[in-house]
């Protein structure tokens, strides 16, 4: 391949990534906005009390299902598996893989959904032994039990479509999911109370699968991934080839991914178990703080979500240098997004919570408690982002990888021990601090081990150096925003948030450029080009 051809391909790939990331981020942001509206309605209708705590304990089940079956679990197994099938046998290989795996998945998910409905009572008792409204929580587990099946189908569709570089339908699933919860809660809360929101989870899960179904059928009835040439052979895979393709979804590959996803989501179990022994409302404060604080992390992860098929395809093709460049760039760009967002969250936490939630049954006391938790939780946002981003190159080769599980287990141990030690002193804020410490240790271990345990020779020291400089810029921006929003004229939430939106990014950009972070300079240059283009038109 000539240098010019390689450069052209790299530029084409970058343009594709930019477009796909922009569309994915826009739809994800829309889903987050609808999700915030959902949380606002629930907070307004039910406040932060025993009923909401019961719903949020039950909500742990859909959260687990989403992590395991849509986000980390299924994506980290199926995207590399479908990418490998496409690399080796083209569209025919992908169809063979689908025919061999999808019926088995449906059966397993149906059995799991039935078992969840049957075991709801002991599950709630074990998860939140100090919960006041245990019977209500049991109902809120049983009503959306079918979401285990629908989430699994939605996650399968999402992974298959992303491997084919079709990102729009998967990015839209949380819009329809949150819309289903919101509509059901508004329509039925007068009759069912908080149970209406639980029923909405079931409806939302069905919508997640249905919105992708036409695109999945079209992609697997014909065609190949966008922008890619045909594979050497697009004929159906013979028996020996099928065995080779199924290796990417074997028990040895699935088990470490599933256990990693479960151990990571277990942080939520630990947090809610510890918070269930605190005064009523603690679980709700922790939940609302996490939902808002995680938005920068969700947006930053869109970069890695879009590029996972590219990294997996590069590894499948043996192009480790291309994979290394992609991974290093993604880690730093994700760091830019999440640290900027985290600085804004820390600076404007009380104003954000008051603006979003303080109405109806959600009072000033709930606002103050939630904002305090959110500021502590934001300290772990970079760790959460890196942990999610770094698992992708570990699992991108469709081979067994156990180190992420070991790193997550150590982080979870720190979360448990730290939470037990901190809760008597700091209450729910201690839970958030333990969460931040545990996930940050996990992320550091994953980054240091990546070049040694995978075929991707990432320079961990270079990445850490750039992230450290970005963290300094974020600290300066958060301090400036916090000080500015505390001024007498910014006591109202809307002016405080507006000032933070202007001041925090400006200070972050100036500081990051002064600290010579290349990715920050690129972002500033791109922004200037956009503004110049807008003025010209």
Describe this structure in words.
This protein has 537 residues and is mainly α. The protein folds into two domains: 24-249, no CATH class; 255-469, no CATH class. Helices cover 84% and strands 0% of the residues. It has 20 helices and no strands. The protein has helices at 3-46, 50-118, 120-127, 134-142, 147-163, 168-171, 173-192, 195-221, 239-246, 251-275, 282-293, 295-316, 320-357, 364-377, 381-395, 403-426, 428-453, 460-485, 493-514, 518-536. α2 crosses α5 (147-163) and α13 packs antiparallel against α14. It is globular, with a radius of gyration of 23 Å. The model is unreliable at 1-8 and 223-243 (pLDDT under 50).
Alpha carbon gyration radius: 23 Å
Chain-averaged pLDDT: 81
Poorly predicted sequence stretches spanning 5 or more consecutive residues: 1-8, 223-243
Q: Helix amount, in percent?
A: over 70%
- Total number of beta strands: 0
The main β sheet shows up as: none
Instruction: Name the beta content range.
Output: under 5%
Given helix and strand content, the structural type is mainly alpha
| CA(first)-CA(last) distance | 39 Å
* Helix and strand element order: HHHHHHHHHHHHHHHHHHHH
Number of domains: 2
Overall spatial form: globular
| DSSP summary: helix tally | 20
């Amino acid at each position: 391949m000539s240098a010019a051809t390689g450069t052209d391909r790299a530029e084409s790939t970058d343009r594709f990534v930019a477009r796909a990331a922009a569309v994915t981020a826009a739809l994800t942001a829309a889903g987050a906005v609808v999700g915030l509206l959902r949380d606002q309605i629930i907070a307004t209708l039910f406040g932060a009390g025993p009923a909401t705590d019961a719903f949020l304990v039950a909500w742990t089940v859909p959260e687990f299902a989403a992590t395991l079956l849509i986000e980390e679990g299924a994506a980290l197994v199926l995207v590399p598996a479908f990418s490998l099938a496409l690399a080796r046998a083209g569209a025919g290989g992908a169809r063979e893989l689908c025919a061999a795996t999808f019926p088995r998945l449906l059966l397993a998910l149906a059995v799991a959904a039935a078992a969840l409905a049957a075991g709801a009572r002991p599950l709630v008792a074990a998860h939140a032994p100090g919960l006041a409204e245990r019977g209500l929580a049991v109902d809120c587990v049983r009503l959306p039990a079918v979401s285990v099946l629908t989430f699994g189908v939605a996650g399968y569709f999402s992974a298959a479509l992303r491997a084919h570089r079709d990102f729009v339908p998967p990015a839209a699933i949380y819009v329809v999911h949150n819309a289903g919860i919101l509509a059901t809660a508004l329509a039925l809360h007068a009759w069912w109370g908080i149970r209406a929101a639980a029923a909405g989870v079931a409806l939302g899960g069905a919508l997640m699968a249905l919105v992708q179904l036409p695109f999945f059928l079209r992609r697997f009835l014909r065609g190949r991934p966008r922008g890619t040439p045909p594979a050497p052979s697009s004929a159906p895979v013979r028996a020996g080839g099928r065995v080779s393709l199924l290796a990417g979804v074997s028990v040895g590959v699935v088990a470490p991914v599933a256990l990693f996803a479960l151990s990571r989501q277990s942080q939520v179990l630990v947090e809610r178990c510890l918070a269930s022994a605190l005064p009523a409302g603690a679980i709700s404060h922790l939940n609302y703080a996490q939902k808002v604080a995680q938005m920068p992390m969700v947006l930053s992860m869109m970069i890695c979500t879009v590029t996972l098929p590219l990294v997996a395809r590069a590894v499948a093709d043996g192009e480790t240098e291309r994979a290394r460049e992609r991974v290093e760039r993604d880690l730093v760009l994700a760091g830019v997004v999440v640290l900027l967002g985290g600085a804004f969250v820390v600076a404007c936490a009380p104003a954000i919570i008051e603006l979003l939630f303080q109405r109806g049954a959600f009072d000033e006391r709930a606002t103050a408690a939630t904002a305090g938790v959110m500021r502590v939780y934001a300290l772990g946002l970079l760790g959460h982002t890196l942990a999610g981003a770094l698992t992708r190159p570990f699992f991108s080769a469709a081979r067994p990888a156990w180190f992420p599980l070991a790193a997550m287990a150590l982080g979870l141990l720190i979360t448990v021990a730290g939470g037990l030690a901190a809760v008597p002193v700091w209450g729910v804020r201690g839970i958030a601090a333990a969460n931040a410490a545990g996930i940050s240790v996990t992320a550091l271990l994953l980054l240091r081990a990546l070049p040694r345990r995978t075929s991707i020779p990432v320079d961990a020291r270079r990445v850490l150096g750039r992230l450290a400089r970005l963290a300094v810029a974020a600290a300066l921006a958060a301090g400036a925003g916090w000080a500015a929003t505390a001024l007498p004229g910014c006591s109202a939430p809307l002016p405080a948030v507006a000032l933070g939106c202007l001041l925090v990014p400006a200070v972050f950009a100036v500081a990051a450029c002064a600290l010579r972070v290349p990715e920050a300079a690129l972002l500033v240059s791109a922004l200037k080009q956009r503004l110049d283009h807008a003025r010209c038109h």
